């Protein structure tokens, strides 16, 4: 656990940052440089809590270590092309926190935020009330775990958990396990259980996949060189809808490799289409397993083909020739119903995502889906900004790669915005140096 010298809640700040993950801390870094009076409010007893307590034991980054570029704190280890394990990620973050010494309060829960007048927020917490000129929401977008509505209640003897509650196979009772969802968490948790010798039943979805290595290099490195991580929401073919897209599944485990669900099926994993319901002792799935596997493989091959084109157009030679993935396994039929008890399924892990919960923010800045309306994190209220959301601005946003760039942009905006307020109200504070 990181140890910091906590500050006390003051009556007023220029900026209040809600959330003490890497995104909020990056904003704090730049605000400290600009001498802006601010505080980081974190509801958990430690900063960067999710990395410590909401990742399974064998978790690794899926992007290489060289992409870890927090402000003044790049990765400096001996494996820049490797993938940090959970404990190494925590050590990396602790090093950043030690450098930063952020003005933070831990274990404080923000219960309500509203605006008083045109330029001031009243921020209520379980430790008192404070006021701020600018609000930075760095609480992420993954708040409420999603559980499906079932026609029948699951038996009491079946252990049920969400992905954030899974740590290791030893948690689970004897018997087989159903993992629902094949996004990054679902695919990697299924792999973790499969490698541990558990009989895994995996309900797939429409998550895409990509190769770990291709043409002699990590695919992430190729995509970085091709400029993909600089693709903005505005420039993406799906525009704003890309923010709702599912990440490609791949793993950094054991030095990094593909996750090929078809290969797992050859080794005994049972694959099904999208989960539909549990009713009268039966687990029900859609007849779309073939479609889901094919779509994932099409994305895999499309990304590799894009790399081939890039290499050809730039006359880049590699020792590894171009190739196309050919399925190593095909389902004999679409199984849409199985008996829970007969299959000896004693545990279910839901890996179907989260919903945002900004109910504590009493401001008219949200869309119908619960996400804020914003441009590069700046909302339709110029005194409120968000940081750390996927595709906040680019594909690299929300990752260790570009969270510092997003934070620097927002912090510069905040400093300039506050300086305008100061000039309009010269008695309220001293002018900051931009």
TrEMBL record:
Pfam families given in the database record: Pyr_redox_3 (PF13738)
Top-level taxon of the source organism: Bacteria
Record's keyword terms, sorted: Oxidoreductase
GO molecular function, one term: monooxygenase activity
Name this protein carries in UniProt: FAD-dependent oxidoreductase
Residue ranges crossing the lipid bilayer per the database entry: none
InterPro entries: Auxin_biosynth/cation_transpt, CHP04046_FMN-dependent, FAD/NAD-bd_sf
